[in-house]
Amino acid sequence: MALVVVDPLRRFTVKGAPFEVDGAESIVNGINELANHFRQNSLPVIWVSRLIRPQLSLGTRTSAKYKGMNAAFTGEWAEMDHRLEIKPEDYVIFKPRHSSFHDTDLEIILRENGVKETWLCGFTFNVCVLATAFDAVAKDFKVKFVVDLCGTLPSKFDEKTVDSASIHEYTKIISDYAVGEMIASHDAAKILAQSSSGISN
């Protein structure tokens, strides 16, 4: 198993940030705790950050939706949250698109560590976390979503705003049916201990 933390970036986690997620501080604290559980069980922790390359666009749909908001994707807002407890033994990778697998070494890291199952958390559940999950399944990795450590933003569709809680629930339904299992962070220590005793990756 490996923990993959997707886009724990300041634009989502800091108060007053361009895309501030409700409850982000609690999510950050929970991610730190979960990462410690993985390390204690000698399992890899992988931090993934979105890197906007100057010569590339944000992606066609992202560019269209957030035209004129490039500042939200660069500078201090593009940094990982400073409260994250990233350790020397952890992996840190950078991705140019939504999925953590696209144009990165994530699959290589997972294969070299003998990983068969990925635990996903981070920001945002319905975009980059879900995109990563779809690619993980396509590459025959099992997926678990640590749902209370996945942040979600509200979304506007057909002139109506759908609140973040509803988006979160919709994403859970879609993901549980087609992608992976939903788990809660408070169950993590028990699950990891049981898996480690069975030498399961």
UniProtKB/TrEMBL annotation:
The keyword Transcription regulation does not apply. This is Unannotated protein. It comes from freshwater metagenome. InterPro entries: Isochorismatase-like_dom, Isochorismatase-like_hydrls, Isochorismatase-like_sf. Residues 2-161 form the Isochorismatase-like domain. The keyword Cytoplasm does not apply. Keywords: Hydrolase. One of its GO terms (molecular function) is hydrolase activity.
